[in-house]
Amino acid sequence: MSRSMVAPNVLSWASDVEAATVAQAARSAAMPFVRGHVALMPDAHLGIGATVGSVIPTRGAVMPAAVGVDIGCGMIAARTDLTAADLPDSLDGLMPLVARAIPAGVGQGHADRSAAFASAAATWPARAMAFTARQEETAATQFGTLGSGNHFVEVCLDQDDVVWTVLHSGSRGIGNQIATIHIEGARALMARYFITLDDPDLAYLVQGTAEFDSYIADMLWAQAYAMGNREAMQAALTQCLFSVVGKGAVVDTINCHHNFTQLEHHGRQDLWITRKGAIRARSGDRGVIPGSMGTRSYIVSGLGSTAAYQSCSHGAGRRMSRSQARRSLSTESLVAAMGERSWNRDDAAALLDEHPLSYKDIDQVMADQADLVTVTHTLRQVFNYKGTG
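Predicted structure:
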């Protein structure tokens, strides 16, 4: 554990963090409506506006860019009744099934998911935004799809050789559009009221205004979309896996956000707790903390740290930007790092920016937050599928 105050009102758990990241967190911490310190998780790195891997407590205002453009992005993990002995010698045959069932990549979607989307959306909170026909189509066709970047599908084995599925994704194109509209709206409000900020992406919405209420309603809808999206993909993934194995059932599921804000009670006051690249870790809360391609992931139980606003990291956190990774790392070393796992190796060149060396050491991240969570299961990958583009 390496908790320390690294800047005014910035408490950090990160033993590996850049000065620019700390400076960015300090700008967030200096906003007048921040109440208490900003908590930097051990995977913290530069983001847009607010730091990825930060927890920001605010009163009376929220910053849409602090939640980010992938509202509700998070993890779902499912424990099955299978063990390593039930799996075939190779899971290469699973790849085409998963690729068909779970479209991946920028803008990719199903031909028609209107019925599945409508059924899921019937239980979600009402949104404020009126969608265009194009937005309705985007929301429907991308429901049950992965996206690109660091979003992934995995089959893993835990320390007892029990088979798990793990999946990382969020609110897809429609979540991005919702976030962008509200971020730009907040910037316009700053200009209208002649409010100058150190970073325009710290533009905020004030509680009690129509703009604030609209954002919260749309954000909650997008969070529900993200959670439902993960549930739909997890069902498709396990169906594919069980068809390859010839049997199987899901016995437990964990589904958690890591880009969101919600009203919580901390230090005798109600605060908006914005977790950008962080998950809630109240005492007993279960979470999923992935590493990177070729490394371990962890199922954890929260310890309820008040200093961290009952939060923990959402993953390993980037060490290199995507462009830096492409300049510095090689396809050959990525292939070597993936070893005998089944993965979409034909896309290795396109996936170079997801190289394990472009991320922080997940084991160090876990050591840094030993006071935030306890590990209940350690997972190792045997199958990895990512979207490109």
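Summary: The longest strand covers residues 373-386.
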